[in-house]
Amino acid sequence: MSRPGSGGKRRARRAVAAPASRAAGGSGGAGGAWGARPGRPRMRRRTFLLVIVIAGMIFSIQSFVYVERNLRPPMMNIAKIRVKQVATQAINKAITEQVAQRSNSEKLIDWKMNGNGKISGFMLNYAEHMSITSQTINTVQNTLNEMKGIPEHIPIGHALNSAIISSFGPKVPVKFEPVGAVKVDLSTRQKDAGINMILVEVYIRIVAEVTIIIPFDTEPELVETDIPISYLLVVGDVPMYYYDGTGRPVGESAAEAPNISVPLGQGTGEGVTTSPGSGGNAGSGPSNEDLDHSGPATEVPAEGSGNSADPEIPPGETGNSAGE
């Protein structure tokens, strides 16, 4: 048995719920009709992103090909110059510090004396030679091993040959690796320092082979440097005077150079005498310039001719040898 007034409340609730359900159904239908439309902008965004990715890949490939063809050679040349500069500076610094610590550099050369106590020659001390060579090899090898872990960076603008953008662009890392053994040679070279004086230079020649590594290529390179470690001046006997290239004496109490007679021919008895600073003069006979060719020429009659000169006939008279 229902309470009075309960049926009316139920009918009122149903009446209110019916329009609400209709409104919900209408909105749902409209929502379903409009819910399929937002899928098109999403497809457009995906297509746009795909196009951008493809264009970026094509641009990256073209850039890589351009860098490979045009920037690799100049970048490698710049890397070689930079690596040689850095390696040479490090080697010179290490060897200079090592030489500065040695106080027996005078033992590098053994001098040879003659009977008069004068220097007649010299030779390198083999023991000191080997000691310096081994220490130099170890120093150079350790220096290169320490430097290989420190990369150098070169702006890519250097490879474009442009003064404006030479310091711009991404920096390319450059490394090098020591390859093979370090070659060290201790030698000497001489230089004229005056009259009978020679300046002897003792130097170390270092040759190291390294491999230069850049992102695009690797190439081997030789690092060479000469480091002087000692200078020695050899002074000989200096004469009071000497003769220069023209034969003239130079110095104090200089005597004239002796005359030299050069024969002109065999059996002629004549010669040309030369002295420094003068031309050739006739030694025993007159020269061509001393002969006088201004007078008339004298004819000498040939044998068998009709006329002959008779010394007993006075002047003005002639004799006919053919008639007599």
UniProtKB/TrEMBL annotation:
<feature type="region of interest" description="Disordered">
    <location>
        <begin position="1"/>
        <end position="38"/>
    </location>
</feature>
<dbReference type="Pfam" id="PF09560">
    <property type="entry name" value="Spore_YunB"/>
</dbReference>
<keyword id="KW-0812">Transmembrane</keyword>
<feature type="compositionally biased region" description="Gly residues">
    <location>
        <begin position="25"/>
        <end position="34"/>
    </location>
</feature>
<protein>
    <submittedName>
        <fullName>Sporulation protein YunB</fullName>
    </submittedName>
</protein>
<keyword id="KW-1133">Transmembrane helix</keyword>
<dbReference type="InterPro" id="IPR014197">
    <property type="entry name" value="Sporulation_prot_YunB"/>
</dbReference>
<feature type="compositionally biased region" description="Low complexity">
    <location>
        <begin position="15"/>
        <end position="24"/>
    </location>
</feature>
<keyword id="KW-0472">Membrane</keyword>
<feature type="transmembrane region" description="Helical">
    <location>
        <begin position="47"/>
        <end position="67"/>
    </location>
</feature>
<feature type="region of interest" description="Disordered">
    <location>
        <begin position="259"/>
        <end position="324"/>
    </location>
</feature>
